[in-house]
Amino acid sequence: MNSRSRRFVLAVAVVLALGLSSSTASAHCDTLNGPVVAAARLALQKGDVTPVLRWVKAADEAEIRHAFEQTLAVRTAGARAKELADRYFFETLVRVHRQGEGAPYTGLKPGTDLDPAVESADTAIEDGSVDHVIQLVTGDIAAGIRRRFTRVVEARKRADQSVEAGREFVEAYVEYVHDIENLHLIATGTAPGHTEVEHATAAGAHSHK
Prior knowledge:
mainly alpha, 9 helices, disordered C terminus
């Protein structure tokens, strides 16, 4: 993968955080078909907790080991007990993983909540090609930039008509410039951390309501 391709992949996070995509970003690790739950399913299938330990901090390992032992014990009590025990372990693991990231846990989300860009990014790793990710993401990036640019240009035409119109221009200008700046930072490698991106996503969603 060349540097240009890597930059496009990294830009996925900023696209979601800035609201350039038409869909709302979800926390990948909160989903039932995300990598954390996938590791949990594998661990339960094998009866070995090892596959999930990489997803938690060392300080939280004891809690996960204890939850895993409890889950294995309860799973033997029948189909319904197995279902409930597995769900308990999934939720415990995801909660502790999120806690380790300094991010909030708001419950497990169904797989349908997974953002297409994130799903595509995962598929690219398995396929060994990032081309589809680039095609999917760059369209949203371009559309988002054009939308903000158009808003600034139109607001600028009315900026001198009144103080209120001037403020609308300033708001559009600040949003446009800041978003371009953030995209440039991510493209050049000065990327925010995973948790920072999610906080930015929440803030962006609130500000664009």
